[in-house]
Amino acid sequence: MSERMTKRMSDRLAVRKTYKLYIGGAFPRSESGRSYPVTDTKDRFVANASHASRKDVRDAVSAARKAFGGWSGRTAYNRAQILYRIAEMLEGRRDQFITELRHTGASKTQAANEVDAAIDRWVWYAGWADKISTVAGAANPVSGPFFNFSTPEPTGVVGIIAPDSPLLGLVSVVAPAIVTGNTTVVIASEPAPLPAITLAEVLATSDLPGGVINILTGHRTELAPWLASHMDVNAIDLTGVPDADVPSLEDAAAGNLKRVFRASEDWADDPGTARMTAFLEVKTVWHPVGV
Amino acid sequence: MRVFGDAWGVSTETLIGAAELRAFLHGLPGVDQVGAEERAARLATRSIKTSAKAEAIDLAISMVDLTTLEGADTAGKVAALCAKAAHPDPSDPSVPKVAAVCVYPDMVEVAVRSLEGTGIGVASVATAFPSGRAPLEAKLADTRAAVAAGAAEIDMVIDRGAFLSGDFLKVFEEITAVKQACGQAHLKVILETGELSTYDNVRRASWLAMRAGADFIKTSTGKVSPAATLPVTLVMLEAVRDYRAATGRQVGVKPAGGIRTTKDAIKYLVLVNETAGPDWLTPHWFRLGASSVLNDLLMQRRKLSTGVYSGPDYFTLD
Prior knowledge:
Chain B: Its EC number is 4.1.2.4. The structure holds two protein chains of two kinds. Helix content of chain A is about 45%, strand content about 20%. Chain A is an alpha/beta fold. Chain B has twelve helices and eight strands. The interface between A and B is small, with 13 and 8 residues.
């Protein structure tokens, strides 16, 4: 009996995971129905990932636009709480992230260190939600009977071409964009998209409203031009784009005067505030006094 | 085909009795619910691309009844809507104008004045829209006022309470009375299919309205959910097709409410073409009652002409 049980268990069929896109808080397949195989560093098959099309980009942008009012309207404290909640959920998925990073060639220790660094980075950015306006804003001295304030406001929908560092790099570009109230459409790393979709599963089970982060997997060269030229995207982060492709994407982004940001960095370094302030606009208010 | 036995040669002026009407409406063949839903879903999968899509978008724009039916409507809002009706995309003169502007009766005058010279008609809802719960006299006064103010089309609601309790003659007589009050104006009869509960009822209400003299049958007020759906429109399109076959008189169809995207609009066009036929594919016989769909149609149109996705920032808010 027990022998039979053992045999049956070793014969168990593998339960393969279907990796889909993350749009508007749901996990749809690509509109095109396409997928592409993801392999590990030894060229062994790991999983199929969705191969998004331009229409998925369009759907993701409308989901992000729809989410913008609610997300940017929340108090900074609430956004901080939600980001911290995401960090809690990331912690719970630690082992899964480590396994996925090991497929990309990292050793066990390297993978564990990267996951820890990613979670720490997320918590670090969560703390900035209610502090960034003090750092990036000001009470300005003016020669007149006015209080004059400059306050940073979120830009809107931010398109992000994520770098190939599959978890730490991804977290380092997404967290600073949303913590200030922007919503995002992220094109994940092409060779290693799986941690991005696992991150999406974390987001879906945290308190983050659907549409604040939308994650697409697929070919960067196919998707990036549609995101860059989209008239309803307010800013674009080209960090994950190779040098040769930057000029054409910058051209496309000029159609509606998008803010373009690109900074390659060592993800292990301490981040500054540059990635947050890149996607903020400053509003200055003149408030009369003594009237 | 003898299914519609006593429908042959029916004229709208015929005086009919309650028993005859009931027998006729209950004699209509039942709607195959599963079949209707499947067919509507199947037709909705048709892929319309590139130049066909461009034509479909322009046709859909020219079929829109641009509608504002809010308690908060103001003369300014109606005037703005009329400006949009005449030039949906001011930056592109090749965009066709919409079919009509649909407003409440007290706004008809403003709309008529704003649309002068554009060739766009003013449609007015009337007869205690949207519930229809008012005395007949009030409904007729409502209608006459709208027509006197210059409305070219009247959208009336049927008395769903009477219809559902089987008092078909009351509904019939109300429609004929309103038709008379309309004079030259076209009469659209709103069935409010969301409250009729079955497709059989939708088919009966369609035939009832057409026999009473409706120039158009319209799905919904837009105030009740579900509003227009593809299967309901399919049933109504079959009704107008069969009615023309039986009597020779053509009646238009107007789905209203719940049509928000270009994809939705194109699905309706496919449905019209495949069910009633291309004769109905003109603004004269088919309308889309909606307002938000227009911006989506314009966005898609611009995507086709510029090659990049557009955004709502570049079109009017309404």
